[in-house]
Amino acid sequence: MQDNKTQHLTLYADPGHAWLKVSLWDLKQLKIEDKITSWSYRDPNGKDIYLEEDVDMGTYLTTLKKHGLDYVIWEDVTDNQSIIRTYRNY
User: Fold this and answer.
1) Domain range holding 45?
2) 60 close to 51: Cβ distance less than 8 angstroms
3) What does the pLDDT look like over 71-83, one tens digit per residue?
4) Which end of the chain is more exposed for a tag (fewer CB within 10 A), N or C?
């Protein structure tokens, strides 16, 4: 996360749910890693977190706004079940 740059984020969605991909480092820098629920997922390398759309994504985006940080969200949508569902819970 860099203060003077726009964050380029990806929202992954399958037919049942969606998740915003962010780095664990960003969560720590924003001091919200303890506010993320177990409904979000951690990828196998442990560096990226997929924030569930209902609560955790809002927590993250609200915090970005509070810090005056801009973002753009790209969408990656599939008609199949996402592999994200197989990852470990946060």
Assistant:
1) 7-79
2) yes
3) 999 999 999 999 9
4) N
Q: Is the entire prediction scored with pTM above 0.85?
A: yes
Which residues are 8's β-sheet partners?
Answer: 72
DSSP at 68: T
Say if CB 58 and CB 20 are below 8 A apart.
Answer: no
Alpha-carbon distance values, 10 to 13, 51, 54 (Å): 10, 11, 16
DSSP string, 1-64: --TTS-EEEEEEE-SS-EEEEEEHHHHHHTT-GGG--TTSEE-TTSSEEEEETTTHHHHHHHHH
Look at residue 45 and tell me if it is in a domain: yes
| C-alpha to C-alpha distance for 39 and 65, rounded to whole angstroms | 23
